[in-house]
């Protein structure tokens, strides 16, 4: 057994100490005394292990030391059991046993929270003595607080079970003798090699690779998820373990050096393997020590502490935690490269059948070809592109770009040999190749392909070619953003956005985004859209605004790619304004004419409007699962349709009064079944803002709700509508006007678990309020969502009727999300009187929390402000709530002292400071 100078415990001293305890203790006191001593030894050993790790020790060394510590503890327990507790004077042939470490423990490496997997090997059958010894060892380990996976089997059982169970077979593959009868262990390993492993290499490899694929599917197919699983995730420790299992099984090697001798890895690649393994073990051990448990996921709430423990510091534009996570993702990428090289070696040995590597993307098998039209440097083998000779890249470096363009053009997967040679030829990508017109033409053709550019660009990125060919892209490879909004690293987000753009371009998913699908075929130049899509976040991680810096990158790169001056300027404009449409749609009142006019003034042309809409949709959808929804799509379509007439000269400059009159006439015609006197009276119940900002269908629904409430003599009524396409549920509240009305509605929604995404507030001429809120949809079926909407409506009515104490109800529901605590978001309260002709716009942004909207709206009411509309957006942990307000005289807020008071109170609302109760004051129309 390996022992290092920095071992955490002296095994001989430990056994001597336990022997002394055993000799001086009576039988009843022996076990507690032994246990107490072992607890001290284990506690001290782990303390030293953590101390050495924090001081800069290697992770793999820490894992080995912890395994050695465990070896000595088990050995000491075994010696006490067999010498003092259950001694045998004349053991029979059956009273023998070998204690064997299996699984991860068998590799001789343990994390602080790892399971201890043991196999008790018997000669042929269990005896009372053997049963007693096993029981004593296990109970001691359990009492030490260890998680122990164990099995007791004879050699025949081990061989029989491993023949039919791949998990048991893998465990025995890594078996390591600890204590007891070594001949039993040697018999087991000899028979295992002869009766199980021999001639079953391809079967084992296929099973392990299938197991890996399923594990990746469960954890998330991308290795660039921003909360990765260090052990089970793609690019994690388990992937390295899988490689080594296969190597030990197929090549029958016991060390990494033997893999070099077998020609699987070069010396440099083996060094990369060990470097990646060491880093991942460092992360895993730190993570277990930090959390005090077997935590394998690098969640947001531990990432910052992990960065500090591992010694990362902040740089301009990048936080310490972002630098740590970038390093993590680069290592995960290295693991992927090693996997590819290893699989190539296996194929050379014909260990497994050649697969269609793109099977996950549904690419159909192609007929077998030998030549690629127009190319003599590349051939096709088993539907995969490969080199015609090993010098194709040295002879013509443009081939480093051409191989990817040909793979996309002919719908081919990549042969591992070709990809291995690509990664070994990256030094050929220099300034000359970057400026080569043919290389840039091929790259642009690939980027704007109508096939599967996402798949090929991802392989190009993983091979290191994309970052070398476009150095500004290389700077954001593996870069993560420390927030809850973005689900992937920056480079993965950009490549996914290309994939979504390509789907729209091919006319797929038209039901999700019908307008974008119809517009993309009318674009004058689709190439600029693809270039802007690839580069829109390329300047992330810099001290300056990434939109402005990204536009500067585009102006430099465009001519190199072969774009004209006009194309380059369009790309730069799109990047500089790539957030404009999203922020306007989600955070501004689209019923306010000034919003549309200001937006149109920036966009200036219909072509830019089309480009910006499509880019915005693809950008949002590529952020991560669940970020895009139909409501955002509806807001973007509304903004597009409202802006289009201004850019095409089709907007009729009808006066406000005439537009109000036309809207009344439209509703009057729709209510033709009403008595004329009742209809005319109803038309006078709304102020001009209502007529200009509400669409006809909702006006009809409001009229029906108000009429039924009046006839029933009800002062309070609600109505719900399920808007499946927009993925929101609409709740309309008709109630006596009250300054706290929206606040109480927001509080009731919080207490009911409803997430408000938008709100419109109107007051009638007879002192009633008609408020409409939109909450995010929760259930898939309309029936379930309708039941939920009715429950929320009922709670709103109870709250407004005084039957529910909202602060208590919210307190029960509004428990802060654990992940939120990991983030700090600066609170910002912005005032702007130029965004609307009628209202002051307050944009309040800061750290999100349950009940925040309730506190903000209550504070605004306390400050004697009328809320005309509210627009609620959440970007991960960051809330951006925008309110269009006036004072009680329907005027904008223009006094500096008043602004300061409002700003201070809203800051307090973000901090959870209770609002001061105020007497009700009637809202103005």
TrEMBL record:
Protein name, entry field: Bifunctional uridylyltransferase/uridylyl-removing enzyme
NCBIfam families: PRK05092.1, UTase_glnD
Domain notes: Has four distinct domains: an N-terminal nucleotidyltransferase (NT) domain responsible for UTase activity, a central HD domain that encodes UR activity, and two C-terminal ACT domains that seem to have a role in glutamine sensing.
InterPro entries on file: ACT-like_dom_sf (IPR045865), ACT_dom (IPR002912), HD/PDEase_dom (IPR003607), HD_domain (IPR006674), NT_sf (IPR043519), PII_UdlTrfase/GS_AdlTrfase (IPR013546), UTase/UR (IPR010043)
SMART domains: HDc
Family: Belongs to the GlnD family.
Region ranges (Uridylyltransferase): 1-373
